[in-house]
Specification:
alpha/beta; Rossmann fold; five-stranded parallel beta sheet; about 40% helix
């Protein structure tokens, strides 16, 4: 099993990189595990308090469960990936069944943060992007997908997103084997990564 971690700041283009890799592989032997699914359930808090949570801080993520699930996949066991809603800031009672595959991609802003999780990875990738581009993408995403207005998005960016990026996310770049500038626009880097995966799949058939 080949386990790949893809990290990078909010709005850096991680998901686009993953989607491009999957499209080029056109292979059912790949499973994607989203770190976003493992945000802690906050249903015990009033909605107003939930909306103040710093989602860019490592403590907001149940890394223990994510690590446990990756370990199970490595053993060939089926896992139940949680479903998280950024609208309600809670976990669903339902889950997504994920089967072990030859390639597992773990994607998320902080997936290179915990050493125990990094140690499970064969390849560690950091998607790099200029701060102004990331901010523009975050504004669009949070307005369209998470029901926030531009003032709240900018306030959150100043209060939590930017400070947490500098303190927790950007430093994980030093753990990366590959740094991909410009995210999904970097076709050369995506092609190189995809060819490596294809070689691994071919060598292990």
């Amino acid at each position: 099993m080949l386990i790949i971690g893809i990290a990078g700041g909010t709005g850096s283009g991680k998901t686009t990189v993953v989607d491009e890799i999957i499209a080029l592989l056109n292979n059912s032997d790949v499973a994607v595990i989203s770190q976003d699914s493992y945000y802690r359930d906050n249903s015990q808090l009033p909605l107003e308090e939930r909306q103040k949570i710093n989602f860019d801080h490592p403590d907001s993520i149940e890394f223990e469960l994510l690590i446990e699930n990756i370990q199970k996949l490595k053993k060939g066991e089926l896992i139940k990936q949680p479903i998280y809603s950024f609208i309600t800031c809670t976990r669903s009672e339902e889950s997504v069944l994920v089967n072990p595959q030859k390639v597992i991609i773990i994607e998320g802003i902080l997936c290179l943060h915990p050493k125990e999780l990094r140690d499970l990875m064969n390849i560690k990738i950091f998607v790099d992007c200029e701060a102004d581009v990331r901010l523009s993408r975050v504004i669009k995403r949070d307005i369209l997908e998470r029901g926030r207005d531009v003032i709240k998005v900018l306030q959150r960016y100043d209060d939590t997103v930017r400070p947490s990026h500098l303190k927790f996310i950007e430093p994980t770049k030093r753990h990366a084997d590959i740094i991909v500038p410009e995210g999904g626009n970097n076709k050369v880097a995506i092609d190189i990564i995809t060819q490596y995966i294809k070689k691994h799949l071919h060598d292990n058939t």
